[in-house]
Amino acid sequence: MSVRRYEPSHIEPKWQEVWERERTWEVTNQPDDREKSYILEMLPYPSGEPHIGHLKNYALGDAIAHFHRRIGQRVMHPMGYDAFGLPAENNAIKTGVHPREATDKSIAAYRHWFHRWGISIDWSRELGTHEPSYYRWTQWIFLKLLERGLAYRKEAAVKWCPYDQTVLANEQVIDGRCERCGHEVELRQLEQWFFRITDYADALLEGLNDIEWPEHVKTMQRNWIGRSEGAEVIFRCEELGIDYPVFTTRPDTLFGATFFVLAPEHPDVLKLARDTDHEDQVEEYINRSLGESLEERSAADKPKTGVPLGRTVTNPMNGEQIPVFVSDYVLMEYGTGAIMAVPGHDERDYAFARVHDLEIRQVIAGPDDELPYTGNGPLVNSGPFDGMPNREAMAAIVDWLDREGKGHASVSYKLRDWLISRQRYWGCPIPVIYCPECGMLPVPEEDLPVTLPDVEDYQPRGRSPLATAEDWVNTTCPSCGEKAHRETDTMDTFVDSSWYFLRYCDARNDQAAWDRSVVDGWMPVDQYIGGVEHAILHLMYARFFVKALADMELLSTQEPFKALFTQGMILGPDGHKMSSSKGNVVAPSRIVERYGADAARCYVLFMGPADQDAAWSDTGVEGVHRFLARLWRLGDELAGTADGGETPREPEGDDLVLVRKANWAIEKVTTDMGRFSFNTAISAIMELINEIYRHPGADPQARAFATATAGSLVFPFAPHLGAEVYEQLTGRRVWEDSWPGADSEMLQVDTFELVCQVNGKVRDRVSAPSGAPREELEQLCLAARGVQTHIDGHEVAKVVVVPDKLVNVVVR
RNA sequence: GCCCGGGUGGCGGAACGGUAGACGCAGUCGGCUUAAACCCGACGGUCCAAGCGGACGUGGGGGUUCGAAUCCCUCCCCGGGCACCA
């Protein structure tokens, strides 16, 4: 008989067919006595075919899902597609192919590969965010937010991408550039739709304390929300009789406020400068700075430019008249768009004062008289507050301001409301109608969904291509029945993905977005897995949605994702980020076709810690393939010779070694699963296989037991091979058997290698009985030859014994 | 500038304060083979030594400890995030 080879192309389709036919991974919404476990990977944006990062993402989530099922949990592991979005639309502009067509084709490819990879997905819950049966409920949620005042329209200076011809949310602007296309964004004054995420700033901040997320992701969200405690202080312009509040985190430095600065966009700048000698100069400055790109304006090391307005305001602490300037280092979007400048204790104000030769006054004593000084210390030059430590003075001064009616404690945030309207075609229509008589009206719930019409031309021209679909735009007013027109903007695609995890719970409900009891039965997601690039965007928006929906009593959970795991990127073999322009892209299809899905899946988890970036290696995947082939050959060889499900009775010698190693592996893989250490879990299974090869003469029962154990343990990573080997040796389906438990007796060893140290250096190793008393170990160590030669001629000062491990002899 | 991660053989990486380098890749040697591939096995930190063995060794320097890759201080380098946020 010729030696048979491991052929993933035979094994894998066989098991995939079983899982599909029997719908093995479907789970009902009916609770039972098992603990629920909602395992979710971020849904893919379907474009072309899945890439290697998707393989890692889903291999990772699948390993967790399988593990949780086999430790007795009721696991939901669904899949869907974030199907609306710009790439499909830009492709449509280029090729004329309808975005739906390209998207559905890509979805088919993703679906195909998820099957081919053997990912254990509950396909009965599959969804696409571009399907009317889904976005109907996206629109419904929009209406709920509108009803609650959490969706609103306002005119504001918004970020505009000239290439994509649409507005963007703050979160979608990276270094002054469009997140999608990389073009520099501009500011435009436009009326747009916003979600009032700022109402939830504190809730979003506090909720972070209750969830098991990587600390750096929490930090990024905290920084993005940017909560600062301080005070609002009123500076009055006596000449014009107008009060100007400013926000400051340093009320303790108020006596040092020697000038006052407005942002160029501040609505009162021209009003203040009017009829002064500076009017022309101010106008010129404003025009110049508004003409600058965001990138130019926001350079931190930019010299501090600005011009005086020819006016003064009153410092509320000491009544001094201080000059007012306009300068682009003050941002309109933060605080009140105006600041009190304290050059003695703020680096930016100091730089401005130096350029414009303004008074720099010290009001906090530092270790020396060097200014600007931003540290702590007692107050000086601060009237009645002199000598008070500045930390105390903050509260004391705010109290004083409060009593005088010149200010109060206040909190400020960097977080802005989420701008959600887009002037693009391939998105969820905003369900709103404008009537000349009745104004803006929500589309009645019973008229949902507002379906996306077909259009001829997808080219954006500063307004949504939907505006050209006249039959669709023109409608009747739901209130008065007269002619009216529809909102033509669509929603940011991040809106679609902010609630899909809720829809999975009740995916086929056509009466409601979800049934509350069903969602409460599954939520929150127990383990969420995805790339860190969504640390702010998607992860913050989804948290906001859940908090808002919980406030509407539509669900109970306060946080969507109880635990988060952020996977590292797979880099090209050259160590650089994969990109077609660099020619270093590794296509998963090629790997899966050559080595099989199991090898591809195992390798992406074996590469290194799953949360770290790692470079692809073709020889690395071959090594994992070799390991799987070794396991397969053991299964093939031992099939039918013994029952691998049975532990050998009273094993001895080689048999005992194998049984112990198998139990060691069970223990190791189990703990490693719990800490997401998949690379070490796989290496433990490799060690087990190596051990079996090292004992070819062991009893077939012991070898079959060890091999079946390896099949069982490898199943979460290589489900096809795991199922195959396990079935060959036990006749059972591995996923129907619970996760193996280590036999504590088999983890015990009779003897161990005692490490003998002298002054902390290993000098010998001797065999010692397990559980031996300290005195015995000490004697064994002192008697060891390597130890003897090193303590000879020295006085033994101390002996440290670590039972079952080592002895350290300290000599002088 | 501030805030997070990291820095261990030729490479990816492993290591509750207790044998540094598990596992894998690459390499060398041996077996199988007419031969090659596959496969099986052995050896691989550096330096000195024929060998026994010894010295050094986890980015640099210092410290705590019987004992430090691991804890503390300090500096250097790499990656990421934020960055005129008052």
Description:
By secondary structure, this protein is α/β, with parallel strands linked by helices. 37% of the residues lie in helices and 19% in strands. The chain contains 27 helices and 31 strands. The strands form ten sheets. The chain has a four-stranded parallel sheet, covered by helices on one side. A four-stranded antiparallel sheet has the order 6-5-9-17. Strands 13-14-12-15 form a four-stranded mixed sheet. Helix 17 links the parallel strand 24 (527-531) and strand 25. Helix 22 (678-694) runs antiparallel to helix 23 (700-714). It is globular. The termini are far apart. The model has no long low-confidence stretch (mean pLDDT 92). It binds one RNA strand of 86 nucleotides through helix 7, strand 11, strand 15, helix 11 and strand 27.
Oligomer: single chain
Q: Tell how many strands the DSSP assignment holds.
A: 31
Rg, Cα atoms, Å: 34 Å
What about the largest sheet?
4 strands, parallel
Helix content: 25-40%
Side-by-side strand order of the widest sheet = 2-1-24-25
Tally of contiguous helical segments: 27
Strand proportion: 15-25%
Describe how the helices and strands are arranged:
Layout: H1 8-21, E1 35-41, H2 52-70, E2 73-76, E3 80-81, H3 86-95, H4 99-116, E4 127-128, H5 132-147, E5 151-161, E6 166-168, E7 173-174, E8 177-178, E9 186-195, H6 201-207, H7 215-225, E10 228-237, E11 242-248, E12 259-262, H8 269-273, H9 279-291, H10 294-298, E13 307-314, E14 321-326, E15 338-341, H11 347-356, H12 390-404, E16 407-412, E17 418-419, E18 421-422, E19 432-435, E20 439-442, H13 470-473, E21 474-476, E22 483-486, E23 490-491, H14 493-496, H15 500-503, H16 516-522, E24 527-531, H17 537-551, E25 564-567, E26 570-571, H18 588-595, H19 597-606, E27 614-615, H20 618-638, H21 653-674, H22 678-694, H23 700-714, H24 719-730, H25 744-747, E28 751-758, E29 761-769, H26 774-783, H27 785-791, E30 796-802, E31 806-811
Parallel strand pairs: 1-2, 1-24, 3-4, 12-14, 24-25, 26-27, 28-31
Antiparallel strand pairs: 5-6, 5-9, 7-8, 9-17, 10-11, 10-16, 12-15, 13-14, 18-23, 19-20, 19-22, 21-22, 28-29, 30-31
Helix pairs in contact: 1-24, 2-19, 3-4, 18-19, 19-20, 20-23, 20-24, 21-22, 21-23, 22-23, 23-24
The structure holds one RNA strand of 86 nucleotides.
